[in-house]
Write a structure and sequence with these properties.
alpha+beta, disordered N terminus, 512 residues, 29 strands
Amino acid sequence: MRRILTLLLVFHLFTLDKITVKGLHSTDVEPLACILNSSFQTNWEQNNTYQLQFTAYDDKSVAYDSIDAESSIYFDGQEYIVKQCLPDFSSGVATKKVTAIHIYNEVSRIRQRTIKTGTITYSINDVLAFYLSGNSLGFSYQVIGSFDTTQITDLGNSDGKDMLSKIVSAWPTAVIYPDNKVIRVYSSDAWAKNNGNRIDYLNNASEVKQTYDSSSITNQAMVYGKTKESDNTDVTEYYFPPHLVSNQDSINKWGLHPADDISDNRFTDSGAMDRYALTQLIPEPTLTIDVTYDGNEKPIAGELRRLEIRETSFVTNVQVVAYTWYPLDKTQQTQLTLNNTAKTILDYQKNSQSQLNKALAEQKRLDSNIKTTNQTATKAFDSRFIGDTFSTTTRQVSRAATLPLPGYVLKVPADNADLGLKKNDQFYVATSVDYVAGLKDYVTGMLPTIPDIPEYKPATPTDDGLMSAVDKVKLDKLKIEPLTSIQMKDTINDSVYVLTMENGEIKIMKGE
């Protein structure tokens, strides 16, 4: 089983990258191996573009020669028809620059010449069946999801491409995404695919570009419905009077932005006309998000992804509505264009307001700091000291020199709460010899220097110090009272006696 799965995976990868070509009137399909890998790209945009482009070089192969207008290119299970083939010869090298559009665009070759006159209610299946039933080009169709019916006037006498345009116009939420010649029409709910993938700026996306454009806002239009048949050609009669339709929420938010008149003969009911007209207005600025995705993985059309820009705390859910992919060159990053749904725009506006609030708070903080700095500077200026000269006599700075140093009485120029002084109050300052000019030199000449001051150490029984060694010996012999005995010497014969106290009686005995 594991071997089978591995072979299937290898086969899938091989068929994904394999590109083949078939000439217009040929039955042979040739592998196309002469493509410049970096030039090969696929472009898709919802309900608009579905094509591939590449440049091939002349490798003298049948495949290269088969590349021409209306030849078929097969890639990733889809067929594309070459519409532009531009041969170029330069420096001995022949190349062809090719643009091929998806085969579903060939539906334009189907023309429905019948006209269903009048205003008729249709489903999407009705429209597709009217144009495609029994066609000789092999086109079929499939409607995926639920749609309401709508009215269309005078359907027909147009080609299959116009059919698709009418579908998108009548059902604005419809998404056309074909599978070769199967025209598939999805409702918005059925089209959205959420695979749990994320777009995280600076994690898996190197650039996220947001274009917020208010130039296309429209929130009011004059509407005209179907006209009545009348013999009076000078007066136009309508099933309901022409009137203004407004999106008041948009007007309140952005101001009045009138649109061109909307005229549609499908409508005989005023309410239905109003509901349709509101869908044609653009009440909010358009938001386009372009992402340069890190890596070269194959994008999924219509995929829902969570978009996060952590630097600005912007988080929203977006849908892939266009992409450019380079399947043969893994070094080129996939380009994604994401949708501008009302929810995405609301998230954008909410985030923008949050960033504005942060900027205003930061500005307020800076203003507060500036105010505090100004107050501190003013306080510092008012706290400076000024003085009045009271003397210009000379002062002695040394025994041999004098200098003409003026004297000052210090005072404050403004009320100073820190010093407890009023404006112009005088004050004196504490100082030291180092901060009075000349005083240090003068005092130095009056006091002995350190080398002239004797150094005294503690005395010992053998060395003089703070006292003599003899006095140190005598001092050491002194005992702390009370004494148990006292030695005394006879003044006549120098005999030594010991005086003691026993039970309160004084006793004297001759000692040694």
